[in-house]
Amino acid sequence: MCCGILRFSGVLGAIVALIVVVIALLKQLIALVGFLLAAVKIAIVVIFIALLVMIVLAIFRDHPVLERNRVLAQRLAARLTPLAAHAHVAEVRQTGMIAALNPSWSMDELIEKRLSEAR
Questions:
Q1: How far apart are CA 77 and CA 67, in angstroms?
Q2: What dihedral do alpha carbons 11, 16, 17, 21 form, nearest 10°?
Q3: Higher-confidence residue: 67 or 12?
Q4: What pLDDT score does 2 carry?
Q5: Residue 105: strand, helix, or coil
Q6: Handedness of CA 104, 110, 116, 119 (dihedral sign)
Q7: In angstroms, rounded to a whole number, what is the distance separating the alpha carbons of residues 34 and 44?
Q8: Backbone angles phi, psi at 94, to 5 degrees
Q9: In this structure, are residues 102 and 90 in contact, taking their beta carbons and an 8 Å threshold?
Q10: Res. 65 pLDDT band, cuts 50 70 90
Q11: Which residues neighbour 96 within 8 Å (Cβ) at sequence distance 6 or greater?
């Protein structure tokens, strides 16, 4: 009787130990799969960025984008020159393709003028 209980507890202990080992292995497998999924996501992002950079470089290589922008900036400067002499323009500024006009009046003066016209 005593040997039967020990033998049963030994078999039961072995089964429990086997279940614990399988659970530990499954946890490690899940962690590995999670790591691999994260690595694949990072690889996809890196490949996407590299592809975008290659496309942009190909556009700049095949098309004269910068030269065309220089020509457009010169045309913009030529079109802005007459505006500098306008009575309502205090200043005209340009840097490349970006232009700015400053009015010759302040916002307070404009509000005052509009209010007096409305009366």
A1: 15
A2: 140
A3: 67
A4: 52
A5: coil
A6: positive
A7: 15
A8: -150, 135
A9: yes
A10: confident
A11: 69, 73
- 98 SS3 class: strand
97 φ/ψ angles, rounded to the nearest 5 degrees:
-90, 5
Contact between 94 and 73 under an 8 Å Cβ cutoff? The reply is yes
- Compare 85 and 110 and report the one with higher pLDDT: 85
What residue spans define the domains of the chain?
A: 1-63, 65-119
DSSP for 38-89, please give it: HHHHHHHHHHHHHHHHHHHHHHHHHS-HHHHHHHHHHHHHHHHHHHHTSTTE
Band (pLDDT 50/70/90 cuts) for residue 90 is: confident
- On whether the pTM is more than 0.70, the answer is no
Nearest one of 57, 99, 59, 49 to 78, comparing CA atoms: 99
**pLDDT classification of 118: cutoffs 50, 70, 90:** confident
Question: Taking a C-beta distance cutoff of 8 angstroms, is the pair 92, 78 a contact?
Answer: no
